[in-house]
Specification:
Length: 350
């Protein structure tokens, strides 16, 4: 984990031994049955106008992300679609995990390997500055209060909703309404399903350490994808003619599926491009401003095939696949035939 000293594995005359009395334990997010249980978020104070909420102020916050991470990607999509780029700055960590004996993110893409505004090399630095006792994985996305230089929110599950609601005063002119009031309850319900069965479902497959837990997650994932395939047979997007927050969340997983999860996480019943409705839907979103232009296939492949881990002791050599051909994401999808509108977004007027 972040700042716990890890036992060192050594070899002597061909034999291997541990400096600790016990063999290394499974990562904390792996249950006794071998299933993956994602850690909870540490910084969850909401944005809002109440005394105990984070004030909504232009220029006060910095969003830290990596283009490899689906949880971070969806917040960047919404940030761009709503025109919040000028009021919330963006710091980008490398898709490759640093080889430092713990799971972390590094700003190795920046000059001198540090974020230019925060002056930190690793995401863990901002976590530990905010909570010296923090012992979990430092995750992205995370919002940093630039006045305090501390992490204030890493609640990826609600972050896009904050951008869509309380950040409304800073939306660009004619910004789309991704979270319509009349659909919020339904969107929340579907988001919960998508999270457990799909967004986190692929990780339950990829990080499983028992055959039983893997197969259970696999069956749940593809059962849900079959349901979504059927749902999209008569709807252009998940709630009809217009893109909503639910589409953003599903996209972040679907766009990584064929290039990473299919073989990297053993979610290999079939490719998304073999599911006609999901495939057309994915290409429809990919060509939409804010979606495809924030998607970095090379970063995604690097992360999932070369360095993804929740275990800092994982040192096995990895190979970066040459495929698949991502030019197919630009082929015609004809999804507009399912829509009663030429527009993809429902515009929320000021």
């Amino acid at each position: 984990m972040v700042h716990k000293e890890q036992p060192v594995s050594c070899s002597f005359n061909g034999s291997e031994y541990e400096t600790d009395k016990e063999l290394r334990k499974k990562p904390e997010e792996i249950s006794v049955d071998g299933s993956f249980k994602r850690q909870t978020n540490r910084f969850t104070t909401p944005f809002g106008e109440k005394k105990d909420e984070l004030p909504v102020e232009a220029g006060r916050y910095r969003l830290l992300w990596s283009p490899a991470c689906p949880w971070a990607h969806r917040s960047v999509i919404v940030r761009k679609v709503l025109g919040l780029e000028k009021v919330i700055s963006l710091g980008t960590a490398s898709p490759l995990r640093p080889k430092i004996g713990r799971v972390d993110w590094e700003f190795s893409l920046d000059k001198d390997n540090v974020d230019p505004l925060l002056g930190i090399q690793y995401i863990s630095e901002i976590y530990l500055k905010s909570d010296p006792e923090y012992s979990g994985r430092p995750t992205v996305p995370v919002i940093v209060d630039m006045k305090e230089k501390k992490a204030v929110n890493n609640d990826y599950f609600k972050l896009t909703n904050y951008f869509e609601t309380v950040w409304f005063p800073f939306h660009k002119e004619n910004a789309p309404d991704l979270y319509p009031i009349n659909l919020q309850e339904e969107i929340d319900s579907l988001n919960d399903i998508i999270f457990h069965d799909v967004n986190n479902g692929v990780y339950k497959c990829g990080f499983a350490q028992s055959q039983e837990s893997y197969e259970e997650a696999y069956d749940t994932l593809f059962s849900r994808l079959d349901d979504l395939e059927q749902r999209l047979s008569s709807k252009r997007f998940l709630f009809g003619d217009y893109i909503t927050d639910s589409d953003v969340r599903l996209y972040a997983t679907m766009i990584r599926f064929d290039v990473a999860y299919y073989n990297g996480f053993n979610t290999n019943r079939n490719l998304i491009r073999e599911m006609p409705n999901l495939w057309g839907y994915l290409r429809d979103l990919y060509e939409t401003p804010g979606f495809g232009d924030t998607t970095d296939f090379h970063a995604i492949k690097q992360h999932y095939h070369l360095s993804i881990t929740i275990n800092p002791d994982n040192t096995e050599e990895k190979i970066l696949p040459k495929g698949p051909d991502v030019s197919v994401f630009r082929t015609p999808h004809h999804r507009e035939k399912l829509s009663n509108s030429k527009e993809k977004f429902l515009v929320r007027s000021k």
